[in-house]
Amino acid sequence: MRRDIVLAIVGSGGDGVISAGEILARAAAHEGLNVFLTKSYGPQIRGGESSCRIRLSHDEILSPGDCLDVLFVFQWQDFHRFVEEYTLAEDCAIFVDEYDNTPESEIPIPKHLIPRIHKIPFEKIAEEKAGTKLAKNMALIGSVIELINWPEKAVNNAVEEKFKRKGEEVLRANLTAIETARLYVREHFSGKVDTTLQYEKGEAKLFMTGNEALCFGALLAGCRFYAGYPITPASEILEWFSTYMPKFGGTVMQAEDEIAAVGMAIGASYAGVKAMCGTSGPGMSLKTEMIGLASMAEIPLVVVDVQRTGPSTGIPTRTEQADLQIAVYGGHGDAPRAVLAPVDVEDCFFTAIDAFNIAEKFQLPVIILSDQFISQRKEAFPSFNGLEIEKIYRDLANDNPEERYQRYALVPNGISPTAIPGMPNHQYTAVGIEHDPIGNPSSTTQMHIKMSEKRAKKLLQISEEHPLLRTYGPEDADIALMGWGSTKGILKEIVKELCSNKLKVKCIIPRLLHPLPVSAISKALTGVSAVIFVEQSYSHQFYRYIRAHLDLPENVYQYSRAGGIPLTVGEVISFIKSALSLKELQEGKKIVTIASEISFKE
Amino acid sequence: MRRDIVLAIVGSGGDGVISAGEILARAAAHEGLNVFLTKSYGPQIRGGESSCRIRLSHDEILSPGDCLDVLFVFQWQDFHRFVEEYTLAEDCAIFVDEYDNTPESEIPIPKHLIPRIHKIPFEKIAEEKAGTKLAKNMALIGSVIELINWPEKAVNNAVEEKFKRKGEEVLRANLTAIETARLYVREHFSGKVDTTLQYEKGEAKLFMTGNEALCFGALLAGCRFYAGYPITPASEILEWFSTYMPKFGGTVMQAEDEIAAVGMAIGASYAGVKAMCGTSGPGMSLKTEMIGLASMAEIPLVVVDVQRTGPSTGIPTRTEQADLQIAVYGGHGDAPRAVLAPVDVEDCFFTAIDAFNIAEKFQLPVIILSDQFISQRKEAFPSFNGLEIEKIYRDLANDNPEERYQRYALVPNGISPTAIPGMPNHQYTAVGIEHDPIGNPSSTTQMHIKMSEKRAKKLLQISEEHPLLRTYGPEDADIALMGWGSTKGILKEIVKELCSNKLKVKCIIPRLLHPLPVSAISKALTGVSAVIFVEQSYSHQFYRYIRAHLDLPENVYQYSRAGGIPLTVGEVISFIKSALSLKELQEGKKIVTIASEISFKE
Amino acid sequence: MAVATEYKTNLKPVWCPGCGDFGVLAAFTQAFSALGLRKENIVIVTGIGCSSRIAGYLNVYGFNSIHGRTLPIATGVKIANPHLTVIAAGGDGDAYSIGIGHIPHAARRNIDITYLVMDNEIYGLTKGQQSPTSPLGIYSSSTPLGTYERPLNTLEMLLSFNATFVAQAFSGDTKHLVELIIKAIKHKGFSFINCISPCPTYRGGMQIFKDIRAKLRYLDEEERDVSEKELAYRIARTKDYIPIGVIYQEEVDEYERVLEALREKSGAKKEIGLEEVLSTFIA
Amino acid sequence: MAVATEYKTNLKPVWCPGCGDFGVLAAFTQAFSALGLRKENIVIVTGIGCSSRIAGYLNVYGFNSIHGRTLPIATGVKIANPHLTVIAAGGDGDAYSIGIGHIPHAARRNIDITYLVMDNEIYGLTKGQQSPTSPLGIYSSSTPLGTYERPLNTLEMLLSFNATFVAQAFSGDTKHLVELIIKAIKHKGFSFINCISPCPTYRGGMQIFKDIRAKLRYLDEEERDVSEKELAYRIARTKDYIPIGVIYQEEVDEYERVLEALREKSGAKKEIGLEEVLSTFIA
Ligand SMILES: Cc1ncc(C[n+]2csc(CCOP(=O)(O)OP(=O)(O)O)c2C)c(N)n1
Ligand SMILES: Cc1ncc(C[n+]2csc(CCOP(=O)(O)OP(=O)(O)O)c2C)c(N)n1
Ligand code: SF4
Ligand code: SF4
Ligand SMILES: [Mg+2]
Ligand SMILES: [Mg+2]
């Protein structure tokens, strides 16, 4: 009996792998289980390999799980594409369609696991019971129900939901395929494989992708204008808003390019509507000039960058954390902005709200650094019933100015009350040119210094008022793992793992990346003797960035792996192990003595 | 008698201020003097205030000079615009046109300097002797010759050169105006003002702007394609090449925008021609996506960014050092590039050559960070007679590959021999998508890691093979000033000044900013107990960048002033003084004891 | 109702004496006054260039943005608040070189903004480089041997983009320009005016005003069917004279109206609670 | 002389079964073969999109660059080495949305490259969002209630840019496409082909091939004066049929020739010493 199980389903185009995965995952979320769903595809635009991986647990799920406990495959030839990401557990159970006749020598898994392969006649059941092999994913669903103890009722409901429009007959055929497979499996594998999950049912959970959660957050924060240009993995934001934004009286624009998209959002925000635009790396590169304009003209703006593997076109369908530098430093001149990073699907919701509040309160551009891993996976999390959201709107100028209205007044905190078109007596010109308090162009050094200071003052306030720092693990930890964004999951999992091995380890995850909450992080680092940076960027962008702003303890290690598949718990733990014991050999320090006591599960 | 003099001429539109300054400066350079010429204008597009400032010396000139020794003004009303940048020396001499009748209370200079004002009838002489007040700048030239001991013959030659096309009569009238003014000044001021410069004549020097020197360097390095889009202060590069490039069989393109400009340069380079594009901040923001492409596709490329005051449109005619971050970090993903910064006009020439050599040798984009201060001023420097230039061209693939040609072969040093269209049997596809050695798209994590490593390897080699570090001052200095680019001049001047005050100070100026030559800098920092960063960026971009890569000594100070007028020696020295004595109060350290001995000239 | 001068700020234009853009500034103020528009309900979005400085000289809401991006920003403004009168303005470099990619899209959306391009056939602010409308063979700072790229025919181009209002004006004739601006603002949808606005400093001196004036032909919009596309093309393509007036106009639903219809279709309701939205995503 | 298949690499296209782009790939190889071009003397520059993947499938020099920037890169290539046959290719999103700003300038320069746009009226690679050529009212991933922005007429647009060769093809008729590509490559100057190349996956299924075929009308280029602009506009603007063939062609000096003349005018000499250059700058 297991409390946590990881399974994958692999097939190609017409196999219905993705819809089977979706049905299963959604059903589990309905029963209050924790679910973590990722999908992966081959390079063909259509009809190529496709797969999904589901982790299911009664307890908190922090990562997709390093190894597969259960694998379902329709044909082995489709599996090649996924060997990198689908590592099999030693005690795994593998189920292959009976029709597959790949010679053993060509099965792309470690030889010693071949005996763990079992056959199920998915296609045959489909053909016989549903009259079409298209229903083989239903046979698979039936097998999963039986093998894993998946919530049967919820699954059947989900199947009904899906097929009810296609008529009673189709639905019945599918349900029969499910039931037949279930019975087949019970007959053949009962007691022979240990794949049963143990859990208690709970209240139905929300189940969505990071992109969807982000859209919800934005909508709730009051966003009523979204402009985007299609790009993987941010297109879903454009598509989601295309459906929902008009319902809320808002507007979504598919702009002609990313520059136009951010320009439209700036225009809408200037005119008083909370506005957002979204993209991935290549679009982010194109938006830098406009982000500088928003910073200079002091216009609230939210920009989402759903990072993918770079540079250039890179690998559009894969994840990476290498847009940190462009988010923080992209743009010529000193152009203050804030950068936030959500740490999981649910947090995409809250980050969007934080982003709008910061943008509005401080009148500057805020960049949300999401990534493919967070944005396209689905997670289940409790519903937000009764949640109260603080919604901030920019400070508006007094209705009756006595003198000429000063849009860029040099107020003590740097945040001068703004006006929006339509407000009488406050006509002003927003400018990207350096300017005096009124907004008239000024080219004196004195004015430039004053205005640079005005704009920069916002940063100090943001990091003090919204430090948004997350730490997990014991306060008096000896070792701190530092990471950001989507690596939160594995870092927290590693902290749990190491702490259960008697180490005192915490992880420190800034959700506000820029301005960096230096004092909050320094506080979290008090007493820490070694810091291990974990990130998914070949050039250590996060480590370099933190170094530039923070004095670090003496012992610093970096695990920086280029993007592609997400970091695994295993690879990071083995790095930590070797880093710390290396240290032991070299210096024999305290932390190392502890490290040598660790019994890593490898 | 002086060895060094700083003068300024101030007027408006029709006054001929700039042409007078150009004639004087060029004449001085002809006589082998050191000259440093900057110009400054009011906001009007035409006909507004204009001025130029000339520093003249027998010795090396490192900066425009903090204070004016001599000031010429046609009307005081024009001077308002320049009060920030034209600080008067206590012992200055001021010459105003007799016609100006500004009441004393409205003269925009410190009251106690009013007595140092003298009147010269520039306009009257012009009207009477040349028959037009347009010749008043000639009267000014005559006065300068006499007052400062400016090389008369060379000036007259320059004037002849300028007017010979307008006929004998015009020329004579102008020469008469010069001569009359000269005699007037001799009669009225001889022995009364101390403005005479002492120098020995030498060989004629080269005299040009930084933009021009950069163009020369590029041409010499073999650049035969330039694409630009007009932008202050980089337009002169486009304009210069428009004249010279066709003469050399090359091409210059005025592209439709900055993205097209860099795209064209990439295309030309891909096809085998050394290519460059140039811009300033806003254009740099637009080019980031393309620079990432060049990095990924491994195409040699030189991009010039002549920095101006930012962010956004900022102050187009003023200088700043705040594009460091976008140069080094601009672009999504990990996209290796090199960043070089020239330190003076002459160095623009060598930096262009270094840039092309690095771009070609390592097949990546190289960014040259010039700035308005370097690029638009003119300096005199010795001719390059007999100079031998090393010109590197990219490593080309073997003519007869046995197997399919691998453009992105995983060779040990990461620099795979390239091919250019037209070479038989080497057809390949250059790509911005992650790829295998052949160039075929690949989305595996393994391949991405390998290719990331391949591209990053170049950086290590660049900083080892081309550290391009400049230091001035004693090797065993206690204090190091660190700066880059156009601040070199004042830093070297400050080093001289402080060393002459018994302090042991050096300055460290990396010309290769990225990849940072960490070991060379660390070596230069050995034994240094305090580092003072001096830069012209409100957010300390240079300091942050260095911190991210280098461990610094315990005592670190930063003088980071926003752009506009260039940093002055005086403001930095007074910062240093207060920083070091502050330190003394706080900690009583060694360097401070020395500091207290300094007698600063303020 | 405000008089024309009230639409001006007291900021002194940086323009050269004789610059054509003074005429455009005057025309805008007169048109606003004639239309009785409230200052706070007008927004002018400009790019960068001499001409783009106009935003700062008008006492309305302004946005002097960056080079070439007037249209996206103006589009955002108009959509955010359709009650505003939104003007986009800039130079020929701003519009037809770096900014040209946005024009077809603003035109095909038929967003209700008025786009006035001050076309001086040169880059003024950067000191006289060629622009995409510079005629062949002229000497500019970037073409010391004369221009050699064929200029764009911008009227023809806008017609091909299916712009619903295409006109040409001359800033030397303020009165006529005022009339055109009024028509353009009244037009529902995207209205485009190519306003010939000479740069005496870098393109032809003061003489150029005379040269242009000599070639003008005022179009009579009553006399012909302005929605005749073939005729419009013929006028736009003529080399015999410089056509001034409305070249083409047709009625097509403006973008804001289309969006409103879309919202209705989607069942828009302005106030909606968190639960309502989220419920569909409960598994 | 190489046979058509030799112009193909052995990389398997990622395209969906039935994708129109297969026809374009075949046509290119046949045209290259028919023209007897050497593989190493051809360069194809593409952007990003399903269609842009074509570079990797052709055994010629290729540059699969970034989204929307084929023309600037191809321009650089051609100028750097005028002996090369330079093709730019991409999708309708690549060309008419993000990349549209480069087309008028390539056209007015009359740079000698062939620009072939695989127009499927949709964004294929990003999974089916609308493009600027999507007809009104179609359902796409980004327009769940149907498209509502009027599509561009790209032929009309290219005519207005003064492109010297404007044609339309259908990838379903490879033979005809081959002929057009040959004509386009032979044309001195900028040649443009809008190639209707359906996306059965996201835009109309396999049925769309039939629908298009039913509306085609092949133009007879012998029968009419292809340099008649008004006629060309009429053909481009027709709603009665889909015109296939050369819409317009005229002879204008190509850019490379203009540049060569400029070099001559400037007194070009290939080898020149350091001293010679610098001497003019000695004070
Ligand atoms: C991205 C960017 N590129 C270039 C510039 C420099 N620039 C400022 S104005 C201008 C063009 C001016 O020409 P035009 O738009 O015709 O306006 P005009 O001055 O003639 O009225 C240019 C290229 C800039 N500010 N930003
Ligand atoms: C700057 C940038 N923006 C967006 C994208 C994402 N993207 C890739 S292909 C594509 C459009 C594809 O449409 P099209 O050009 O018509 O080609 P097709 O796939 O239909 O052949 C987009 C928007 C990108 N790669 N780069
Ligand atoms: S340079 Fe030309 S466009 Fe600019 S203000 Fe002067 S006259 Fe007008
Ligand atoms: S999605 Fe459409 S355009 Fe792309 S390969 Fe498939 S059929 Fe072709
Ligand atoms: Mg202009
Ligand atoms: Mg397409």
Question: Tags for this entry?
Answer:
heterotetramer; A: 602 residues; 7-stranded mixed sheet; globular; disordered C terminus; C: 283 residues; alpha/beta; 8-stranded mixed sheet; 11 helices; binds iron/sulfur cluster; binds magnesium ion
The average pLDDT of chain C is 96
Distance between the termini of chain A: 21 Å
Strand line-up of the largest beta sheet of chain A = 6-5-4-1-3-2-14-7
| Beta-strand segment tally of chain A | 21
Strand content of chain C: 15-25%
Give the spatial strand order of the biggest sheet of chain C: 2-1-3-4-6-5-8-7
The largest sheet of chain A, given as strand count, sense and whether it forms a barrel, is: 8 strands, mixed
How many helical elements of chain A?
18
Mean pLDDT of chain A: 94
Report on the architecture of this protein.
The complex is a heterotetramer, with 2 copies of chain A (602 residues) and 2 copies of chain C (283 residues). Chain A is of the alpha/beta class and 602 residues long. Helices cover 38% and strands 20% of the residues of chain A. In chain A, helix 6 packs parallel to helix 11. In chain C, strands 2-1-3-4-6-5-8-7 form an 8-stranded mixed beta sheet, sandwiched between helices. Chains A and B meet through helix 9, helix 10, helix 13 and helix 16 of A and helix 9, helix 10, helix 13 and helix 16 of B. One iron/sulfur cluster binds next to loops of chain C.
